Amino acid sequence: MVNVPKTKKTYCSNKACRKHTLHKVTQYKKGKDSLSAQGKRRYDRKQSGYGGQTKPVFHKKAKTTKKIVLKLQCQSCKHYSQHPIKVSFQPFSFIYFSSFFLVLLN
């Protein structure tokens, strides 16, 4: 996770507040996939039996980092809002860029 403060004073868009209040900051995480979702049921039905893989499996991944999404919870009304921040650098890419700039400076 990116180093962010645990609390942040920001605008709350809920009808109860609509003013700047203190928010608790956590990182958004993807929920567990539902087995009863229509697409999952269709995919499992198609995969069953003989015939191997029926749908294309994506392999050409281009991005190396993801945008971090912060989940803000208002302390007064408990309303949640999300705030995406720019792509965070992983340690490897930071080392790569710092060595690249050192080469440019020399």
From TrEMBL:
Family: Belongs to the eukaryotic ribosomal protein eL42 family.
Entry-linked SUPFAM superfamilies: Zn-binding ribosomal proteins
GO terms classed as biological process: translation
Listed Pfam families: Ribosomal_L44
Protein name per the record: 60S ribosomal protein L44
InterPro entries named in the record: Ribosomal_eL44, Ribosomal_LSU_eL42, Ribosomal_zn-bd
Organism of this sequence: Rhynchospora breviuscula
GO cellular component, one term: ribosome
UniProt-recorded Gene Ontology molecular function terms: structural constituent of ribosome
Keywords: Ribonucleoprotein, Ribosomal protein
Region feature (Disordered): 28-56
Keyword ATP-binding: no
